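Hi again,

Forgot to attach this to my earlier email, sorry! This is the prediction with zinc ion bound. I've pasted everything inline since the attachment limit keeps bouncing my files.
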Amino acid sequence: MSKRDYYEVLGVSKGATEVEIKKAYRRLLKKYHPDANPDKKQAEEKIKEINEAYEVLSDPEKKVRYDQFGHLGPNAGVGGFGGFGGQGADFGGGFGDIFDMFFGAGFGAAQQSRGPQKGADLRFNLLIAFEEAAFGVEKEVEIPRLENCDVCGGSGAEPGTHPKTCPTCKGSGRVTTVSQTLLGHVQTVRPCTTCRGEGTIISQPCKHCAGQGKTRKRQRIQVNVPGGVDNGTRIRIAGEGESGHKGGPPGDLYVFIEVQPHEFFERDGDDVMCQIPITVVQACLGGQIDVPTLDGKVLLNVREGTQNGAVMRVRGKGFKRLRGTGRGDQRVRIHVTVPTQLNEKQKQLLRDFGRTLTPENLATSREKSFFERVKDAFM
Ligand SMILES: [Zn+2]
Ligand SMILES: [Zn+2]
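Structure tokens for the complex follow:
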């Protein structure tokens, strides 16, 4: 089932101010208070819907996202996809079988109604590299989709012939039956079975499309992926879904982004995270280290006495901000490595060095007192 528009739920316009939204919310809460309604269950459902709408529209950030992406926010999981008619697509699917990545309403659903109908929406999972997600990328994707048949123009009738008005329903697509029951006459309206609700029948089906009016074609489409996208970001390309039925508009194409993990970098919001190992000597004495970034290497100054786990920030080397300007930062976590398999000479140097250490050489007061207690106990 498709979800109601949040603005509609609260009965406010898209341009409504925060105050108006709050007012509408309070008014509705009062109106659907379970105590004031005979059908408590229905009132509770209403309140749930109202709360959900208010939670989004009262939060400026969520509201912007909703205005831009609708119910299927950029981070919406697959679970949010009621309207798409299936859950067959899998983020992990990659490029394996392109047909498996699609699902649409197809013919069955479209033929329930006679009038022009919007074509089915399509979903395409696009796998991109970590760097491409950071900076954005232009991609060409190949979409298999149903399009109006070139030969019959979508009518399904062999060229030169025309669909005929259905004799059973006289073109209405519905059949009304009246039956006599204990309660009186009961009128039932059902879709016509002769024409499957179309109102017309095709006596000579188009050979090219077998009377379906549509054929599956592969279409190349340019997708402009903006920098800053993340797993699950949805890009809507209007009108690139399947052709409409009986002259209806085409559906939309939704490109879902999947970002390949990087072997070295991780992502945290708009920031890039990495861990750099340094030696104990570098940690003690400080110095310059090479740090890889998405833009190439940079030199980073490590301060004298840098502790294990210290985090340094390289400004502006992160992801482009999807909604905003500029870029995030790169955060570099320092990992001080302890040397192993020292030779006897190195060990002796360390012992000599160790004897010179005083509590003043230690960084934090907590460590100082710990050092002193240990000294008292063992030395
Ligand atoms: Zn055809
Ligand atoms: Zn009919």
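The domain at 1-71 is CATH 1.10.287.110 (Helix Hairpins). The mean pLDDT is 83.

That should be everything now.

G.
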